[in-house]
From TrEMBL:
Belongs to the beta sliding clamp family. CDD domains: beta_clamp. One of its GO terms (cellular component) is cytoplasm. GO terms for biological process: DNA strand elongation involved in DNA replication. This is Beta sliding clamp.
Length: 366
């Protein structure tokens, strides 16, 4: 392998690829980055076997070839060089790095030891603007479970059908559901992606559209955004039949200012932290009140103005769940619908009628 590449381009690519290398893995090669020199470009790849990345940058390639180099070593070298042309030459399992004032030889490994990862899209099953995807993911990722004993809940369910994409996440206590219109989808399929890869997808330093390819044969999802290809394993198993828990009838509907709700929840949290995070909502005689009480630190009541339509109700929630949904909702107003003190509450906002969030209440002691 022999090529010339710009330091700025290589440094950016390595900083990104380095995130997916695993220095502590049992397989030493997983701590390496793979360089593949092809006609007119350098492909930079890394993987932790859960998530893989492949980045293509422009290069003047004199001789094609492949080599893997320790991720931290090559990244630390390249990021500290001056912004100018860099020469890369591999010989057997060593990589020689030079520029106008620097020379180094780095010991690598045979490229054949590196795991095979996707380097191209077989087809495009879904295409979506990155900013639209990032916004939708922000509405569901916080509801993903961190409980590894229920691995199927540690990801987001993607339901694709003609003209429509639905994202669903739940941890068993709350559920987020968002529907996006999408003309690129022409067939019906679904898969569950780990939270980690979706977080990485939103962080990619690229704009424009993100293209998806669902590889059922290898149980992988592959994404392409400009010069970057990201791939991930798909979680295996059946996602819960979430539709059954979405209430259809309500005894009470409330509309309130989001900032008023945020302030009320924050004030309630002062004492809720000492009482299992529980905050009570009392709706009586057309008034909305938040109550918390702690045997250790005290108690409080916060009343806010709201449009209330329906029966009186006392219901309790984990304040953290209220806090998190209010942080992601856009716009000034929040709608809340209730079926009873022991039934899930539905949170929506007028700005996006395709989104809903459900929170299970905490059972109150008699």
């Amino acid at each position: 392998m022999k090529l010339q590449v710009l330091q700025e381009e290589l440094s950016k690519a390595l900083s990104l690829a380095n995130r997916f290398a695993s220095a502590k893995a049992q397989l030493p090669v997983l701590g390496n980055i793979l360089f593949s020199a092809k006609k007119g470009k350098l492909l930079i790849s890394s993987t932790n076997l859960e998530i893989s990345i492949n980045i293509a940058i422009g290069a003047k390639v004199e001789t094609e070839g492949d080599i893997t180099i320790p991720a931290k070593v090559i990244t630390d070298i390249i990021t500290n060089l001056n912004p100018e042309q860099i020469n890369l030459v591999s010989k057997e399992e060593n990589l020689n790095i030079t520029n106008s004032e620097f020379e180094s030889t780095v010991s690598g490994m045979n490229a054949l030891d590196f795991p095979a990862i996707p380097k191209r899209m077989e087809r495009v099953d879904l295409s979506i603007p990155k900013d639209e995807l990032a916004k939708a993911l922000s509405l569901v990722l916080f509801a993903v479970s961190s409980d590894e004993t229920r691995p199927i809940l540690t990801g987001v369910l993607f339901i694709c059908k003609k003209g429509e994409l639905t994202l669903v996440a739940t941890d068993g206590y709350r559920l987020s559901h968002v529907v996006l219109k999408n003309s690129s989808i022409t067939k019906t399929f679904k898969f569950i992606l780990p939270k980690a890869v979706l977080g990485e997808l939103t962080r990619l330093p690229s704009d424009g559209d993100v293209e998806f390819f669902f590889d059922e044969t290898n149980n992988q999802a592959v994404f392409k955004s400009e010069n970057i290809i990201l791939s991930s394993r798909v979680l295996e198993g059946e996602f819960p039949e979430y539709q059954k828990i979405i209430p259809k009838e309500f005894i009470l509907k409330i509309a309130a200012d989001k900032e008023d709700l945020i302030q009320a929840v924050k004030l309630a949290s002062v004492f809720a932290r000492d009482s299992a995070n529980i905050v009570k909502m009392n709706i009586k005689s057309g008034k909305l009140e938040f109550n918390t009480e702690s045997q250790l630190s005290g108690k409080q009541k916060t009343r806010i103005e709201a449009k209330i339509d329906g029966e009186d109700l006392e219901i309790a929630f984990n304040y953290r769940f209220l806090e998190e949904i209010l942080q992601v909702i856009e716009g000034e107003d929040v709608s809340m619908e209730f079926s009873g003190s022991s039934s899930p509450a539905v949170f929506t906002y007028p700005k996006d009628t395709n989104f809903l969030h459900i929170i299970m209440p905490v059972k109150l002691q008699d």
